[in-house]
Request: fold
Amino acid sequence: MISPNSLQISQNWWIKFPYHLRLITKIRFYASFGAGGVIYLTSLIFNNIGLSATDIGLGFTISAIIGTITRIFTGNYLNKTGKIQFPIVTSSILSIAASLCLIFSRDTFLYIIGQSFVGAAAGIYWPAAEFGVPYFCHPIETRKAYALVRSSEALGIFLGVLLGGFMTNFLYSKSIFINDIFCMLVITYYISRNSSSIKRNLENFQKKLVDPTNQGQLKWNKNSTIIIFSILLITTSLALIQVTLPLDLVKGGVYRDALSKEIISFIISIQLILLLFLQWPVGSWISKKGRLFGLKFSLINFSFASFLLFISSYLNMPAFYLISFSLILVSLGTASFLPTSTDVVFRIAPSNKKGFALALLSQCFAMGYFFGPFISGRILDLFGYASIIWLSISCCCFIVFAVLFKRLF
Reply:
């Protein structure tokens, strides 16, 4: 039984954050709650319908291409206006359209249309959602603020997958899309109710950057190229974990037997539970380290995790334990990467390019989905397993970690 004192402590902890930071945290929770099941379960749902791995990967690739275009426009819009309300509401409407298409989809065509709307919604939403945090967090340190919003997203994704998995198995196979529609309506309500105060808050804090070292910054940081490349590599790894790994497990490895959907859902749930509990403590710990420490820590975790997935393809009985341990490393890598990447990209950009920089960060996620799932889908259809993919990711992450190891920022 939860004691009243515990509830009071939790309430006091939550209230200490600025109102608008709490607002954007709630918005990002609902966005993740709706998207959680869509991200992790869409590939399995349409695999059951009969779409090939190539078709499924193509959908994610087209989604990434559309997202690339919308991110460019959103970044420019944010630089010129500094307003996040219109992009977030627009992305919610597009996400509702995407879910409706995917609900009624029975073939590749409507699936591709739905994924196109998903890409457009994501491309508009992410730069705007990231853009508001540094301006809403004062006097909280930006990395701690990003750890908070990422923790809410971890909770949202976990609950979205948990609820989505239950409803998909026991109620309706495409119930995750109904849940997404509900969450988008909640987000639209939050924005419409607080539109005026959001506008005033953004206008006040855009006149002065919270960190004085960023004032007058006219050029990109000298380490920008390797930082952006490392972020792109990690986002590609995340895309493969979310989209390709479930297909790899359900198809089986070189010697590893195919796993049932129930076991795959259990493994994914364990990883999401770990991320849920690790995000805030790891994010807070990372915020006390050097600004590039989180990226380095993430790269080495993804390197070892991918190597374990590679080995698991050649084993049978111990494979389950290797996969489970690899997802522990993925959780650690993700928990350190998500708050760090946003803060670092915001810091390396010139003062007049912050919106563009956050659009670029969001673009890295789009490019990760562009390269990863389509290529891996072809490999899965050709060979039936994805071991070469995991080995390649492991080597690339370790090489970039070695290059980034001595860099300071």
In short: The longest helix spans residues 175-206. The chain has a mean pLDDT of 81. The chain has one domain: 17-404. Residues 17-404 form a domain with the Growth Hormone; Chain: A; fold (CATH 1.20.1250.20).
